[in-house]
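Hi R.,

Here are the chain sequences for the assembly we discussed:
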Amino acid sequence: MKLACQLLPYEEIFSIAFSLAVTLYLKLFGLFEEEWGFMDWIQQLVNGISLGSIYALIALGYTMVYGIIKLINFAHGEVFMIGAFVGFYAIAGWGLGFFPALIIAMAVCAGMGMLIERVAYRRLRGSTRIAALITAIGISLFIQYLFIYFRGAQPEAYPEVISNQTYNILGAQISSQSLMILGTSIVLMIVLQFIVHKTKIGKAMRAVSHDMDAARLMGINVNTTISATFAIGSSLAGAAGVFFGVYYTKIEPLMGVIPGLKAFVAAVLGGIGIIPGAMVGGLVLGVVETVVSGLGYSLWRDAAAFVILILILLFKPSGIFGKNAREKV
Amino acid sequence: MLKVDGIDVYYGNIHALKGVSLEVLEGEIVTLIGANGAGKSTLLKTLSGLLKPKQGVIQYENQSIVGKQAQTIVKAGISHVPEGRRVFSNMTVEENLELGAFVRKDKEVQKDIQKVYELFPRLFERKGQLSGTLSGGEQQMLAMGRAIMARPKLLLLDEPSMGLAPIMVKTIFSIIEEINETNGTTILLVEQNAHMALSIAKRGYVLETGKVVLTGSAKDLQESDEIRMAYLGG
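And here is the predicted structure of the full complex:
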């Protein structure tokens, strides 16, 4: 940290940040006064939260896996992609509705997460973290290109499973899809909280993440617990994949890369390894992105996430919920 | 009950235990004393399945437990209270106790939690508190309570007196005796505090750099000159 202080041109960073802040403020203020009314803000907020809940669902998988084996599972974005495609085939191929497709996608992704852990990560458990990390990147590329090899790289248009209505709530235009995604995500997060805090496997997950050897001494099967963590995290990513397809209507085999990275940013933003952190981080990121593109900077929306990552790593590397809330899984 | 015969254990390249043999009979308190780095904790970790011996036999109730997984050993009735307590500090006292009963499927877990509270009234007062906020002595109580939640037949205790005030050490040791007497739990006690350990144990083993150098009844050991010089302060 001392070294970083000497190397970083703090004055420059501050002056750039300051001028950015001023511009942004003027822009925001101008819009608030003229173009954007209060209801436009509410509308953007709802859109942002529903996009953010997709990031949050992916980020939960990152954070849970990190919490338990200290590995950033970069193949997680590919699980998300597979979830989107499974949902697509279930809807377009078998004519299923939104919820059955969601459940199938979640189940397939749960199995896939366990398979990745079993095949790629378990044997590396005792090795260095960098070895596991490189393996994760390898698995990520492997899944992407294996999928392209067998299926082709062409994108698909997601069928409209939720009728696209727009509700006018006190002047704010809110789509039925946003509401559905938001509502389902909230339910999934509540279920997750219940599993982690009230069930036996959830307690085992918390125990293993806190102290693996002590958990072993309680008679907890560490391998089973880690498998379960991968299964739960991956099923959430699968759900996020289906939501993403419904929301953006276009899916393709490399779609997991950017949302995966953004969800990773969300997990770091909230404090990696901390479950509520991933939820909050995802929501914050979604809102920031929506506001940035709503202000007319839609080309910058991807950059916004990485600016956040750089800022958080510079100023609070432990994340919003870091240090004090040591609730890890 | 437990018979260890000539085990060799390695920590990476370090040869931590060299042909250690010992025996614990049912209902006994047996202590294992020795200096830092003698291999005491290594022996307990090997017994509870965290480490695997390269050679040798470990028999528990006439069955070999070498190479068995830790959870199998817990189910068989061996609970290990690790060095430094290792409570789950992000969970409440009660959650820690529930985790202690992880391998049990019967309906008497709640009843046993009440029993632990009777044994350690301090834990009852703090049952909703995060265990990381407890004092060292309370954490030791919790670690022991958590271990007996599995209803062990053999309890392995690793330096329960470490870092505790003398009055707390006395309390903890009297509870160890109580667990042994009321539940009939056999206890293998690892200690650096040789004086306290020998005062409640029936027999003892002295471990030095990975080897058993002396064994005998607690009384004989207390009176032996070597022990007095090395561990009891003349």
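The CA atoms of residues 51 and 83 of chain B lie 15 Å apart. The first strand of chain B starts at residue 2 and ends at 11.

Let me know if anything looks off.

Best,
T.
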